[in-house]
Amino acid sequence: MDVLVSLCKRRGFIFQSSEIYGGTGAAWDYGPLGVELKNNIKRAWWRDNIHLRPDMVGLDASILMHPQVWKASGHLDHFTDPMVDCKACQHRFRADKVEEQSWIHYCPATKGNKFEVPAGEPCKHCNVRRSLCPDCGKGELTTPRQFNLMFKTFMGPVEEDAAVTYLRPETAQGIFVNFDNVLQSMRLKLPFGIAQIGKAFRNEITPGNFIFRTREFEQMEIEFFVNPLETIDGRPADEVWHERWIESRFAWYQRYGMRRENLRIREHEKDELAHYAKRTVDIEYQFPIGWSELEGVANRTDFDLKQHAQFSGKSLTYFDEDRKQHVVPYVIEPSAGADRSLLAFLADAYREEEVRGDRRVVLRFHPDLAPVKIAVLPLLKKRPEIVTTAHDLRATLARRWVTVYDDTAAIGRLYRRQDEVGTPYCVTVDVQTVGDSAKGEPGDRCVTIRERDSMEQIRVPIAELQGIFERLLGDGAWADVARSYPPARG
Ligand code: GAP
């Protein structure tokens, strides 16, 4: 994880929030490349789950909602984590997560020597298990008390109880309270889904592990509404749709290059299910911190719509024309984190390779996700024709794809820099491209394209560049395109 954090800072992906003031514990800022990467992930998710499907629509609800929403949803009463404090060092922990971290132990069997014992294991010298604070190894922990994770704030200028509201801890509720608005305005028929991307806030007791768990984060959520009276092949429609969504979401990460062996499905145990859920599975990723939740796919039944109908007094039903009756739809909810997806895509793309005795770091991002698609590089920055041609090329390509120009180092160095931020293609303008006007030698008006993963190079006419990138950054494979052009010298 430290390698990723350092790369992210050095190359402008992610910075600690308010760093010049010492930073905040659990918030991060996306730099120039990070914001492109995150936008690309959100764009791919939106396109695949909304634009390409006939049964989905989008929504952008506000973060501040009526406080009753959180009473109805159960968040005011149930959205809590058990918290314990160390009586000596005052550090706070989630009671249910204390065993998941390594612990400091002053071992009586070794004259009180200090050891760091791996998470969940006993001391190998005295065989004792952790009972004290894992951080200081000395203080007793308090008995657990429930801590509500919602951020409280005030609507309007007066800080009084009547003005209390909350920053939303999930985007989902904005969809439920708009169910009837969307249904009526879009004349939808079940089954259909409403999707939303937006910020959510949770006052996590122990945020950490970089952007894995933060107090402010973005969610990409779908609420897919299903007729509870319907069956598919003799099975309740909600159960079948739940399986379809698990499959679809599991495939989505792989479609953008995540390796299959780093993904798995984990079924929630009965005692682990949220108060609203009939069944939940987590799509887990093998993060640098170990296997952890990347996305949850829950069957929330009719819980939310019924609760909001009861608390608001408004009917939130669907009229089943065939059966001539009102039904409260069941909801399947694939809920992903945009930041957590970014961390997983980043970790999966990261490779250290040996190239002709040199170490190269490369981010093998899928081209749709790569923050920069093309880098235009002049071989010699002292030759004005080369520099002008490269600038012109950048300007032309930038109309269609994120394209950068860089002349701040020798070409080998420039390639390594682009590898390190995952740019799939570099275009190099050289002496041959522009020729030598002083000697009356015309250029060949060709440039070199270098592919990031294979590091192969081909020589192509500038006039064909646009068409070539339409293919390469569309569905075309490098090998197919490269076959039509002569190789360039490395
Ligand atoms: N509406 C259901 C819901 O919010 P969740 O499992 O609590 O379910 C869904 O959250 C996803 O949101 C998680 O799988 C994770 O990707 C992301 N997420 C949740 N809490 C987070 C946090 N504190 N920091 C970053 N991402 C978080």
Describe the structure.
28% of the residues lie in helices and 29% in strands. It is built from 14 helices and 29 strands. A hairpin with a 2-residue loop joins strand 13 and strand 14. Helix 2 crosses helix 9. The radius of gyration is 27 Å and the shape is globular. It binds glycyl-adenosine-5'-phosphate.
Record keyword descriptors for this entry:
490 residues, alpha+beta, 29 strands, globular, binds glycyl-adenosine-5'-phosphate
Task: Spell out the blueprint of helices and strands.
Elements: H1 2-10, E1 14-16, E2 28-30, H2 32-51, E3 56-59, H3 68-73, H4 75-78, E4 80-85, E5 92-94, E6 103-107, E7 113-117, E8 145-148, E9 152-154, E10 164-166, H5 172-177, H6 179-186, E11 192-201, E12 216-226, E13 231-232, E14 235-236, H7 237-255, E15 263-267, E16 279-287, E17 290-301, H8 303-312, E18 318-320, E19 325-327, E20 330-337, H9 338-349, E21 350-355, E22 358-363, E23 374-378, H10 384-398, E24 403-405, H11 411-421, E25 425-429, H12 431-434, E26 435-436, E27 441-442, E28 446-451, E29 457-461, H13 465-472, H14 478-482
Parallel strand pairs: 3-11, 23-24, 23-25
Antiparallel strand pairs: 1-2, 4-5, 4-8, 6-7, 9-10, 11-12, 12-20, 13-14, 15-16, 16-17, 17-20, 18-19, 21-22, 25-28, 26-27, 28-29
The structure holds glycyl-adenosine-5'-phosphate.
Glycyl-adenosine-5'-phosphate binds at residues 170, 172, 202, 204, 213-214, 217, 219, 221, 293-296, 333, 335-337, 339-340.
Helix content: 25-40%
| Ligand kinds | glycyl-adenosine-5'-phosphate
Q: Which runs of at least 5 residues are low in confidence (pLDDT < 50)? A: none
Secondary structure tally: strands: 29
Q: What fraction of residues sit in β-strands?
A: 25-35%
Largest sheet strand order: 3-11-12-20-17-16-15
General form:
globular
What's the tally of helices? 14
Structural class: alpha+beta
Separation of termini?
33 Å
**How confident overall, as mean pLDDT?**
94
Report the major sheet: 7 strands, mixed
Radius of gyration: 27 Å
